[in-house]
Amino acid sequence: MASYDLIVIGSGTAAQVAVAKVHAAGWSVAVIDHRPFGGTCALRGCDPKKMLVSGEEAIDAARRMAGHGVEGALAIDWPALMAFKRTFTDPIPAKQERRYADLGVDAFHGLARFLGPDTIEVDGRTLQARHVLIATGARPIALGIPGEELVVTSEDFLELENLPRRIVLIGGGYVAAEFSHLAARAGAEVTILQRAAQLLPQFDPDLVGWLTPRFRELGIAIETSATVSRVERTEDGLVVHATRQGAPEFSVAADLVVHAAGRGPDLEALDLAAGEVAVRDGRLQLDDHLRSLSNPRVYAAGDAAGVGPPLTPVSSHDAKVVAANLLDGASHRPDYRGVPSVVFTVPPIATVGLSEEQARRQGRKFRINAASTPDWFTARRLAEPIYGHKVLIDEDTDLILGAHLVGPNADEVINLFGLAVRHGLTAADLRSTMFAYPTSASDVGYMLA
Ligand SMILES: Cc1cc2nc3c(=O)[nH]c(=O)nc-3n(C[C@H](O)[C@H](O)[C@H](O)COP(=O)(O)OP(=O)(O)OC[C@H]3O[C@@H](n4cnc5c(N)ncnc54)[C@H](O)[C@@H]3O)c2cc1C
Ligand SMILES: NC(=O)c1ccc[n+]([C@@H]2O[C@H](COP(=O)([O-])OP(=O)(O)OC[C@H]3O[C@@H](n4cnc5c(N)ncnc54)[C@H](O)[C@@H]3O)[C@@H](O)[C@H]2O)c1
C-alpha cells in the first residue's frame, strides 16, 4: 500500500497552496481529484467568470461614452467570448498535472473516500496517510423543490455555448448579481428570484440601492422576498414558480433556470464516518487550528472547512495555516480580519471589514463617511453615474472598521481599505498616503475627509 506524509483531497486553491508548502518541507504528498485538476476558482468560478466580464466591461464603456466622442454600439458575441474564456481555462489541468509530476507529487484521479482513520481509497487503490487534508470545496446546496433536476448550476452557465433568451436565476447573491449582468448585456431577458428581502444581502444596503438602477436599466427583473417553490417543464420551455408571504404564487417563464441559491461544503462522497471525522449539520467539526475534533490526523481548508467566508483568498489563507500547523505542530489559527469581497457587476460593488449593522451590534463608537458621488472626477471621466462609498471609522482610535464601495474600480480600491483593516491603519494614515493622480485610489483621502 502506498503511504504518504500528506494526502490532499481536492486540487483547487486550498490544495495547491498546501501541497506546495508541505512538499517544499520535504514531505511525501499525494493529491486527488475526480475532476480535471485546477479547482473551482480557475476552472469553474472566479477566473472564467472574469474572462467573460471583460466583454461586458468593453461594451459598457462604449455605451457610457456614446455621445461623448465615441460612436457605434458594440455587442457581445457569446460563442466567441466563451472561446476567449477557454484560452485561459483549457490549459490549466495539464499544466497542473505537469507541475505535480515535476515536483514528484503523486496525482490520483477519482473520488476519494475514507476507508479508515488513516486510509483513503481512490480509483480502486488504497493509500495510507500520516495526515489528510480535506480541500474538497463546495457544491450548490440542494433546493429540495420539485423540478430541481431542471435547474442548471453556475458551472453549466459558464460553459454555455449559446445563451438562451429567457433566464431565471434562483437566488439573489453573488452568482445571481454577476450572471444577470453578463446575460443581460449579452442580450438575454433575465429575472432574479431572491428569497431574502434584499439583493446582495452580504453588502451595504445603501450601496446596493445605488447599484440597483443599473440592473433595471439592463432590463433585469428583481423579485425580492420571493422563494422559488417549484420548476416545471411546459411546451414553451420552463416555468419557475415562487411564493411570497401573504401573496398568491407567481410564475416566470424561462428557457434556462440557474441555481444561484448558495453553496455548502462538498463532503458527501468522503465517507467521513469511516474516517472517524465528525460532522454536524453538513459541516466538519474542527478546532481553532482547522483540525478535525475527532480525528487529529485530519485537517480541512477553504470552502470544505466552511470556517471563513467561501472565497479564494480564504482558501489560500486556510491552506497556509494548515501547512504551518502540520510542519510546526498545531499552533496557528486562521485570521479572517479584513477579507475584501467584490461582486463583479459592471460597475462592481465591494466590501471589507464591519458592516454598519455589525459595528452597531458590537457597540462601537464610530463615525460614518458616506456619500453618493457621481460628480467626482473618477465617475465623470468614465460617464458612470454610479459611484459611492461608506467608510466606518472608530471614534476613539481612528481605525478603519469597515469600507463599502460601489462604482468604477471599487474592486481594486477596496484592497487599500483591506490593508488598513487587516494591519490596523488609521484614517489619518490613509489620508497622509500619497496616491498617484488621477486614479480611483486618489479618492480614498476624500472618502475619509
Ligand atoms: C461561479 C463562481 C464564481 C466565483 N467567483 C469568485 C470570485 O470572483 N472571487 C472569489 O474570491 N471567490 C469566488 N468564488 C468562490 C471560489 O471559487 C471558492 O471559494 C474557491 O475556489 C474554493 O477553493 P477550494 O480550494 O476551497 O475548493 P475548490 O477549488 O472547489 O476545490 C475542490 C476540489 O475538490 C474536488 N473534490 C470534491 N470532492 C472530492 C472527492 N471526494 N474526491 C476527490 N476530489 C474531490 C472537486 O472536484 C474540486 O476540484 C466563486 C465561486 C463560484 C461558484
Ligand atoms: N465575486 C465573488 O467573490 C463570488 C462570485 C460568485 C460566487 N461566490 C461564492 O460562491 C458562493 C455561492 O454564491 P451564490 O450566489 O450561489 O450564493 P449566495 O449565498 O451569495 O446567495 C444565495 C442567495 O440565494 C437565496 N436563496 C436561497 N434559496 C432560495 C430559494 N429557494 N429561492 C429564492 N432564493 C433563494 C438566498 O436568499 C441568498 O441570498 C458565495 O457564498 C460566494 O462566496 C463568490
From TrEMBL:
Binding site for FAD: 50, 303
Cofactor annotation remark: Binds 1 FAD per subunit.
Keywords carried by this UniProt record: FAD, Flavoprotein, NAD, Nucleotide-binding
Disulfide bonds: 41-46
Gene3D superfamilies in the record: 3.30.390.30, FAD/NAD(P)-binding domain
InterPro entries: FAD/NAD-bd_sf, FAD/NAD-binding_dom, FAD/NAD-linked_Rdtase_dimer_sf, Pyr_nuc-diS_OxRdtase, Pyr_nucl-diS_OxRdtase_dimer
GO molecular function: nucleotide binding; oxidoreductase activity
Family listed: Belongs to the class-I pyridine nucleotide-disulfide oxidoreductase family.
Protein name: Glutathione reductase (NADPH)
